[in-house]
Predict the 3D structure of the following.
Amino acid sequence: MTAVGNTAVGTTAVGTTAVRRLTVLYDAQCPLCVHLRHWLLRQRQLVPLDLVPAASEEAVRRFPRLDHRGTLDEITVVGDAGQVYRGAAAWVVCLWALAEYRPRAHWLATPAGAPFARAAVVAAAKYREITAPPCAGRCEPPAPRG
């Protein structure tokens, strides 16, 4: 499977790495993001999903080189071999990890499905923009330790 705008995942072909676990970084202050977190946790997972608040101390500890400010702006998923998926590719790889939605993820990763994946991300971002509370200082990621 090829995620929209990213490298191949879920295969063992030359140059790709099988994904065995994914970490989904979500905005814990966003009602839509929290709702989707709960929805993901209720689904049967073919690939385990760890859901970690974006820009949290835990996220910074796990992924010290990641742009944590950016993870608050756009859904980010990190694979166990260091693969990073953002935006539409992140949503597609989340669906790919779920038993019921894997076939849909494969379609969304095709040229025919990619516009639908991007449209879903744009719609979610617009909804989030309308409903999310202002940052009020919480949007800054924690300072790196050390």
